[in-house]
Task: structure prediction
Amino acid sequence: MRSILTQPDPRLREISKTVTKFDSVLETLSMELETLMIAGPGGVGIAAPQIGEFQRVVIVDCRRSMRPCKNHGLLRMVNPKVTDESGNVLGREGCLSVPDWVGVVPRAKNIQVSYQDMEGHSCNIESSGFEARVIQHEIDHLDGVLFTDRVVSTKDLVRRLQAGG
Amino acid sequence: MSYLLLSISGHDRAGIVRDVSEALLHINANIEDSSMTALRGRFTMMLIVKLASGDGLGAVKAALAELEQRTGLTVQSQLISAEEAMVVPQEPDCVVTVTGADKPGIVYEVTDVLAANGVSIVDVSTRSRETDDRGDIYMMALEAFSDAKAESLRAPLEAVADRLGIDVEVHILDGAVI
Result:
C-alpha cells in the first residue's frame, strides 16, 4: 500500500493526465484510494495524485462526513470536470496531504460535474453544499492546486466585500 | 522559559519588520506568533517572543530601549505566562461579514450579540471606504468560535442589521478533513 504524499512534496503540484484506459489497473487504483481515504481521520475524499498516481481520478464519499449532509454516496469519478457553478460559500477545509492545517476557503455553492464512471460511461451530477466543496477540493488536486492556495483571511474577506460593494 | 508580548508601532516605512526582527535576533528571542499590519499610515506589530534562557530581563529591556531610540518606533512589552503563550486559539467555525454606511456603534452592536451568546472572536479585519454615491462604507469580517451555536446568532444579528441599516451575514463553516 502506498502512503499519502504530504506538503511540501513537489509531486502534489503535478498536473494529472486524462484517463483513457478503463481497465483493471484503474479498478485497483480506485480501490487503493478508497482504502486510504477511509483510513484517514474524517476523510471524505481523495485524489489519485495524493498517492503519486498522476491520473484524473477522484473518490468522494460524503456519507462519511461527521455532520450529515446531502450527498450522492460513494462517487468514483474519472476525468471529472465542473461544467457549471453558482453561488459562493465559505467553508473550512483540511487535507490528508496538508496535515495539521485548516483554513477558510470560498467555493461555489452549487456545481454541475461531468465525469466518467469506472467503465468509461459519461455521467453528470448536480451537487451542492458540503459535497460540492469536497468535489471542487479533489478536482483541484488533479491540477496541482492545494486548498492552502485558496485560503482567505478576514482581510481577504473584507477586500471581497469591497469588490462586491 | 519567559515569554514577552511586544506591541510595536511606528510611522509606516520600508524596513520596520527588518529592524524589529534584527533586534530580536541579537538577543536570541524567537518570534512564536505575530500579527503585523499597516493600519492607515501606521505600521503595527503584536508579537509573542520566547526569550533565550539565561538572558536576564534587563538585557532584553535594554535592547528594546535601544531599538526604540534608534528607529523611532514605539515599543511596549509585558511578560506573559508560558501557559498563555502555548495556547493554540480555537479554529473558527463561523464567519460574520458586515457592510453598511459607516456610523459609530457598528462594531459594538455586532460584537455585543456575539458576546451575549458566548461566541469568542478569533480574528477581525475592518476597513472603511469612501464611495461617490453612498458616503463612507464600513466593512468588517470576523472569524469566531461559536461551538456550533452560530445558527442562534442569525436572529439577533438580523435585528441589529435592521436597526443600523447595515448588511450582516453569518457563514457557518462546516469543517472536515478532505
Remarks:
- The first strand of chain B starts at residue 3 and ends at 11.
- Chain B has five helices and nine strands.
